[in-house]
Amino acid sequence: MTCSYAGVVTDAPVPRDTPLPPRTPDLESLRLLVLVAELESLGRAAGRLGISQPSASRRLTTLERGLGLVLVDRTRRGSRLTLAGRVVAGHARRVLDELDDLLAGAGRLRDRREAELRVAASLTIAEYLLPAWIGELRARRPELYIGLRVTNSAHVPELVESGEADIGFIEGPHLARVMSTRQVAEDRLVVVADPGHPWARRREPLTARELSRTPLVLRESGSGTRQTLDRALHLAGCSRARALVELGSTTAVRGTVVAGTGPAVLSELAVRRDLDDGLLIAVEVAGVDLTRELRAVWPTGRRLVGPAAELVAVARRTRTARRAAGPSAG
């Protein structure tokens, strides 16, 4: 063994009479010692723990050797702790009490986790998909409290990683941080305009360049809709979308388009009824892929369990059912 004295390193061996450092005792040995202190009998302490007296004796001997102390005087009248044994037993009792508190606290946290689910979601998912997912989960878990934070796709991962949300749902193609993800649904963006807009009367599709050069009513930067549009235009070899008006919610964008301010690109989920009612007109675009994946996100390395895992499973089952039913089920 290499030793150092006053800055000088030497390979001189450690003397044999150097005491070895104490070994960390196991919890069961500490429990045994505390019971011997309380019952003043090794046999009764062993019986309380459901082990034989010889096993208990060997366990105490191992504990004494590990600590380098004599803890128990064994006599025909019984087993009594030495002075050192009483001091160690006092420490052991506090350690075991702290352990009991730890286990009880963990149990309370586990119970709360099973009774509460905090969700963060982007606006489109929160408005048009999550209500059905939450409804199905609550039908099976009526005691479950669910809290929902609605924000844009860029902010959802922050809430999940900080622990403010147990699970997140995003619609954007980009993640600013490394996270575990799982696809739960698909969505398609559509270019929409009011019936009086020139695009509503077009016979041929828009080009990607026309879309990129025309000022649009847009969601704010960081939203999944804005990210998807910019990415689709970039892949088509065009610049990012130009903003005529920039708004912080899908509902605000939709209302602005209906009012005739200008065209927009929105989730089909958000404008399906307006398209059916003729309030908005869908404008075809050539050469631009506006489909996107909707994903659940959670911290990398953390296993998805409890209500969070159940909600993701509900979302994925809904996606499978929609696929089986065909396009008209959307």
Description:
- This protein has 330 residues and is of the alpha/beta class.
- The chain folds into two domains: 20-111, Winged helix-like DNA-binding domain superfamily/Winged helix DNA-binding domain (Arc Repressor Mutant, subunit A), CATH 1.10.10.10; 116-324, D-Maltodextrin-Binding Protein, domain 2, CATH 3.40.190.290.
- Helices cover 45% and strands 22% of the residues.
- The chain has helices at residues 27-39, 42-49, 53-67, 83-115, 123-128, 130-140, 156-161, 208-213, 224-235, 250-258, 268-277, 306-325, and strands spanning 3-5, 8-10, 72-75, 78-81, 116-122, 145-151, 167-170, 179-193, 216-219, 243-247, 264-267, 281-283, 291-299.
- The strands form four sheets. Strands 5, 6, 7, 8, 11, 12 and 13 form a seven-stranded mixed sheet that branches. It has a two-stranded antiparallel sheet with strand order 1-2. Strands 3-4 form a two-stranded antiparallel ribbon.
- Helix 9 (224-235) links the parallel strand 9 (216-219) and strand 10 (243-247).
- Helix 1 packs across helix 2 (42-49), helix 1 (27-39) packs across helix 3 and helix 1 (27-39) crosses helix 4.
- The protein is rod-shaped.
Provide a quick synopsis of the model.
The chain has helices spanning about 25-40, 40-50, 55-65, 85-115, 125-130, 130-140, 155-160, 210-215, 225-235, 250-260, 270-275, 305-325; strands at about 5, 10, 70-75, 80, 115-120, 145-150, 165-170, 180-195, 215-220, 245, 265, 280-285, 290-300. It is of the alpha/beta class and about 325 residues long.
